[in-house]
Structures are given as structure tokens and as C-alpha cells.
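Hi Y.,

Following your request, here is the sequence exactly as I used it, all 511 residues.
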Amino acid sequence: MNIISFSFYAAVLLALILYYGVPVRFRWMILCGFSGYFVISANGIKLALYMLAVILLTYAAAILVDKYRENVRISRAVLICGIAADGISLVAMKELNFFIHGVRAAAGIFGKAVPLQPVSILAPIGISYYTLSLIGYLVDVYWETAKAEKNPLKVALFTGYFPLLIAGPIVRKREVFDELIEGQKFHYENVTFGLQRIVWGFFKKLVISERFAVIVNAVYGNYFVYSGLYIWVAAICFLLQLYTDFSGGIDICLGVSQLFGIRLPENFDLPFLSRSVSEFWRRWHITLGGWLRDYIYYPMMKSNVMQDMGAKSKKILGKKKGKKIPLYIVTLVSWFLVGFWHGGGWNYIFGVGLFYGLVIIAGQMFEPLSKKLIKVLKIRTECFSWHLFQMARTFLVLVFANSLFRAASLKSGFQMWKMAFSLWNPWIFFDQSLYGLGLNQTEWEILMFGMLVLIVCGLLRYFLKISVRQWLLQQNMLFQWGVMILLVVWVFVYGYYGSGYDAGAFIYFQF
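Below is the corresponding structure, written out as C-alpha cells. Let me know if you'd prefer a different format.
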């Protein structure tokens, strides 16, 4: 079911009427029924049943973990089996070809052929999101930070709540479960904020992201023809396309959910104002970073294996250097998993995974030297110019890393950057060469104006500490709806949709 379609919002409208039309205690059932309808519409009955089976398996595992809590051995065994089942289902449906290619490549080194062929498997919608939510739920029950739910339909709703399956965010039971189950009363503010958020997501996706996509596809699809600064333009455009596409999808998800009075966790917080890669990942895909921190990074650091490794490393390398070895290993493992979660290809694993881990480790290793240079050069680290330098430096790292994520393969990604440094052609910015990438002058002006609106709204939020939506709420109703109608008209007139455009194909929809 396409979330940028009339049929989707007609169905949402019907669900809203039913939701607010029944007694509060029954409203979770409306959400459960509509989420089931959404899953079946998007997946088909077979994949919907597969998804339900995984949910019921995790539900049963959580019940058993809670039941045998006093017997640590049994409880832990059930936990491990439940996590393994969820993890295997995710890998089998999404990343099986990664291992098939790996086995074939390894066999080829020894001159042997393996009768394994890549397979084409259609995975359930949102499998990467709901699988992590299920694993988090099971671990939270084991840690006693969440109670095991006795009603399987309520677990199914928490896992398969339809806005979450579109593009996330990844949620924990304590964040949304009560709001989903208790039922919400009708509030004008929720409907207003929800509609504003949906239209804002449309604006990002249809007016901005789809135009960036034209430029990106032109260069990435034929990068041997383009060289020099064309590659830089395309790489920067892809990073901005990715942001407006992903955050636009999240805005739509959060907006639809807020129509029902249910507020989901934010997934972005002005990420391009980050002054380091670590800070960027605290502002970008926030729920994924938080999940990996709480369920992978910290548990690994506290594990007996890492504690023993730390003790041995200190004896060999000394206390100061030795204690960092477990930290570096856990960092690389965590970032490998970030990349692998995005896709079973080395352009994903390195581009949005290991590369960031290496940058963070390098920053930690060279931090003493960096501090000495700052002191020797008498750099003022609290002034705007230094912060601007840090943001620009981080942005360039992001441009490079995400360009590999977009490339067809890791090899072609590096080939592109070889082409980027093969020619210095600044004249493309002045001789209308950029118009040959698919957008004419008017289209470029619309794109730049859209980005200007986005930047102004972001800066207002950064400096005034208030979102534009909150500011609008303080204005007269006529002004509020005037701005909303203006944005809707802008999307209708200048958005990319209809015949020839697959506007519903969000980049993160595939996960």
C-alpha cells in the first residue's frame, strides 16, 4: 500500500472515524485491525502470516522468560533461542545472498565451484524495524525493564503498528505500548499537528527529494561520463536526497500516528549541525543508534569476554592503551552491524558502517595530538568559526560515506571518487552544464527555494528552541490554516508524482 496514495489516506480516514467512534477501551482493537489490513495489503497473506508467526514466537518466548525467571539457566536459554530465531528470520529473508556470495567467493579462491545460486526472496514490509523491536522487547522482559504481555494481539499491535512499518522509527515497549493500548481521546491539536507533519513530509519528499533524485540518478548511472566536480555535486545531492527522503517518510509516519493521538519517538534532530560523526549518529536515525547502544554496545562492553580481553590487553600494552582495545573491537562490531542492517553488500557495510567506526576510533586515537595542536595554534574552540569548521568537516565525511552507500558496489563507489579527483572543472557552475543533469533552470530554482525553506525552519528551531509547528499553534487559526493550505498547494503544483514517478518508493522503505 503506497503511503502517498489516495487509497491509503481514505483507509486512514475510515480508521480514524472508527477509532474515535468506539469507546476508548476498544480503540486499540481498531488500530490492531487496520494494522493487520495494512500488512496484508502491503505483503500479501503469506508474508503476513510469516510475520505473525515471528511475532507469536517472540510473544511465547517472552512468556517463558518471565515464567522461568527464577531458573536463570532456562530463562537465558529461552532468551538466546528467541533472539536467534528473530535474527535468523531477518537474515534469511533479507541478507541470505550476502552469505551465498561469500561462500562462492571463498570457494573460488581455492579453485572450487559451489552449487549455490543467489535467491530472490520477498521480505515482509518493515522487517528490519519490527525485528529489532521484538528483540528489544524480549531482552527488556529478561532484564525486567518491561513486563511480558499476556495478550498476543497487543504484542502484535505494538510490533506491527502500521506507521512504524513504513520507515520506522524503531520503538521499545515502554515508549508506545501504553498509548497504543489505553486508547486516546480526540484533541484538535493532535489532528492539526498530524496533518501539518504529513504535509511537511510530502513537501520534503515530493518537492525536494525527488528533484535531487534526478541529479543523483543521472551521475551515478553514468559516472564514467561525468568527472571532477560533477561527482561532488551528485554526492552532496544524494546526502540531501537521503535526508529529505528518509526524514520526509518519518514525518508522514509520525504525522499519521499523531492523528490517532499516539506520539512516536523522533528519529532526527537537525543532523547537519553535528560537529562530529558521533554527534551526527545521535541526531540521525536516533532510534537505531539508541537500540544498538543499549542492546549491542553496552552489553558487549560489560561481557566477561571483553572484560577478560581488557585485562590481558592492559598487561601487554599498558593500562592506558590496553583498556582501549575492547572499546575499539566493540565499536567496529557495532558499526559492522549498522552497515549490515542497511543491506548485505560491502557498500552498505563499509559506507554506513565500518567507515564511521574507523573515523570514530581514529578521532579517539588522535585526540591527544588534536588537543596539543589546538593549544599550540591558540584556536578558540568555543567560537562560531570553529564550530562551523567542525560542522563542515563532518558534512564532508558524511558526503563521502553515503556516496558509497548509494553506489552500485563498493568498487564502483571508489571508482567514482577516483573520477572526482581526475579533473578540476569549476566552470560547470557557470556555463549551465548542470542543467544537463535533468533539471532545467526553473527546476533548480524550485529545488533551491525548497531547501531554503528547509534551512530556515531548521535554523529557527535551533536558535529559538521551538518548532515551526509549535510557533504556528500560537498564531490565529486563520493564519495556521493559511500556511497549511499554501504548503499543500505548493506540493500539488511543484511536487513530483503521478505517471512516470514512483513517489512512494522511499529509500528506507526497502528496510
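The chain has a mean pLDDT of 87.

Thanks again,
Q.
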